[in-house]
């Protein structure tokens, strides 16, 4: 029997799924060590897969194909990381095909993390009814990917649809890690929250000043009673609204699907975005659906697992043609 592994390498967590041609059998989360090299994280991944295989009584070399979701720009044809933006920089020199072959005897599919999550959502989640939609992932950064005319949008240089977090929403805004100013990611992401709180002119009057941990859950919890939290929450919602308007104008989608832990507050987020975007987007045919992901944080690892199966099937078809 063929077995497949999906791997989603994030900034804080690594998600790994093992399954057969029918379903995912087990999913395991381990801590990512972004302060270490990419190679150190690869060793963590290998060790975790070994443990999972032992638990499932599967031989290590029975894995037929691997899908790997990487948090930056990827050439999915050459199986190569082409840009990292200071995340796991040594991955650019990594030989993915040789690693998967020598370690597992397996094929490999490599893809950008947002595009992998988009694929997972398209095949198994909220994207199933649509031929055209934008996936927006809200987390440490802001990622995007696009399904257009029933196909993942890739582009000549493999970055089409992936840089929605680096669209400019304030040309004089905060400096982004990419070198631009006023990017969506620089203005409204988990990374931006600390700066938004510390530089708020009324921070000394806020409960946030004494909080050692600032995340979106804290901001949304305090927003009803704390003016600073409310203003930061609404600032982020307005930034995301502006981004979504840009996605609608750029890609003409049927839907925007949003994922990430922040969507635990979707009862506040979705109505706000729908009203704001509905009043600003130029879409004379009607309103674009704004939806929460069904797979949420598991979209990437699901997409990676499905991509692993696709890669195996592609090679099997080639073998049949050569007979």
The CATH architecture name of the largest domain reads 2-Layer Sandwich
CA radius of gyration: 20 Å
Number of domains: 2
Low-confidence stretches: none
**End-to-end separation:** 21 Å
Q: Helicity, in percent?
A: 25-40%
CATH topology of the largest domain: Nucleotidyltransferase, domain 5
Family: Belongs to the ROK (NagC/XylR) family.
Pfam family, one: ROK
Protein name: ROK family protein
Task: Summarize the entry for a quick read.
The chain has 9 helices and 12 strands. The chain has helices at residues 38-56, 96-104, 113-124, 184-187, 190-198, 216-222, 227-251, 266-280, 299-322, and strands at residues 3-9, 13-20, 24-31, 63-70, 73-75, 80-83, 107-112, 133-138, 142-148, 151-152, 255-259, 289-292.
Written description of the protein model:
- There is one protein chain.
- With 323 residues, this protein is of the alpha/beta class.
- The chain folds into two domains: 3-117 and 298-322, Nucleotidyltransferase, domain 5; 128-293, Nucleotidyltransferase, domain 5.
- Helices cover 38% and strands 21% of the residues.
- It has nine helices and twelve strands.
- Strands 3-2-1-4-7 form a five-stranded mixed beta sheet.
- β1 and β2 (13-20) form a beta hairpin.
- α3 (113-124) packs across α9 (299-322), α6 (216-222) crosses α7 and α7 packs across α8.
- The longest helix is centred in the C-terminal third of the chain and has 25 residues, at 227-251.
- It is globular.
């Amino acid at each position: 029997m063929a077995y497949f592994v999906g791997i989603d390498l994030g900034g804080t967590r690594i998600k790994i799924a093992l399954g057969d041609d029918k379903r995912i059998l087990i999913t395991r989360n381990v801590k990512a060590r972004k302060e270490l090299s990419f190679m150190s994280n690869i060793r963590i991944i290998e060790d975790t897969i070994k443990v999972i295989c032992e638990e499932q009584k599967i031989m290590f070399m029975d894995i037929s194909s691997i899908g790997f979701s990487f948090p930056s720009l990827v050439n999915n044809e050459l199986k190569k990381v082409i840009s990292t933006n200071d995340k796991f920089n040594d991955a650019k020199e990594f030989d993915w095909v040789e690693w998967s072959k020598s370690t597992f005897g397996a094929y490999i599919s490599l893809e950008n993390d947002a595009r992998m999550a988009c694929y997972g959502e398209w095949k198994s989640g909220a994207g199933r009814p649509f031929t055209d939609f934008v996936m927006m992932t809200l987390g440490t950064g802001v990622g995007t990917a696009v399904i257009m005319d029933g196909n993942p949008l890739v582009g000549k240089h493999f970055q089409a649809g992936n840089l929605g977090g680096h669209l400019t929403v304030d040309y004089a805004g905060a400096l982004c890690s990419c070198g631009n100013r006023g990017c969506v990611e620089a203005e409204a992401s988990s990374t931006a929250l600390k700066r938004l709180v510390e530089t708020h002119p009324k921070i000394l009057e806020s409960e946030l000043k004494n909080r050692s941990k600032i995340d979106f859950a804290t901001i949304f919890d305090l927003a009803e009673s704390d003016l600073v939290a409310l203003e930061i929450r609404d600032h982020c919602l307005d930034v995301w609204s502006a981004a979504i308007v840009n996605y609608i104008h750029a890609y003409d989608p049927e839907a925007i699907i949003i994922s990430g832990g922040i969507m635990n507050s979707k009862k506040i987020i979705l109505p706000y975005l729908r009203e704001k975007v509905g009043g600003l987007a130029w879409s004379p045919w009607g309103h674009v659906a704004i939806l929460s992901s069904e797979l949420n944080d598991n979209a990437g690892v699901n997409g990676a697992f499905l991509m692993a199966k696709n890669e195996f099937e592609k090679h099997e078809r080639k073998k049949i043609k050569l007979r």
